[in-house]
Amino acid sequence: MKNILILLTVLLLPLAADGQDKPSFSAREMADVRVATPGLFAKSNHIYLHLDSLKDHEYAFPLPGGKVISAYGTRGGHSGTDIKTCAKDTIRAAFDGVVRMSKPYYAYGNIVVIRHANGLETLYSHNFKNLVKAGQAIGLTGRTGRATTEHVHFETRINGQHFNPNLIFDLKERTLRKECIKCTKNGSKIVVKTQIPDNRIAQNKK
To answer: Among 20, 103, 157, 180, which residue is least crowded by beta carbons within 10 Å?
Structure first.
């Protein structure tokens, strides 16, 4: 009996450790796209996304070789950017993070939402298929939901509010903008802007 208990303890310890490593999401967080990140602005009404400190292996363009076919803010307030290559192409996570949501979701079709450590969330939708392996391929381009051609609809969000992905990536060159992004909570809204370094401010004043 004692040997059986020891064996069970050895087998269950790794499972307990895995459970501690995984963040727990509420039912609402796993069900809806527009959800505030708990405690994100608890200490200050500003947070900073330090893209300027990321190494090359710490980010990826969501659809390598892709071309923008519908920009942010077009078509009466498009909440993301549509990027196209070919059907069933591989979609990649922009940054390390944890999958918060992966399922069919209304007009978005098959959707993946990833929460990143700095408070940023990225969204990938209309996928033919979701492949949720952390840090690797997350889906295949498709036209699920309300879509007329195979592509990935890519969004960037802070505290549930979408903002222009072109602040994060140069979407024409498909490269990361290595700058600091300032996110300011102003009432119920979030203002997202590129933070100008102090030395550039000083130069502009001359």
So the answer is: 20
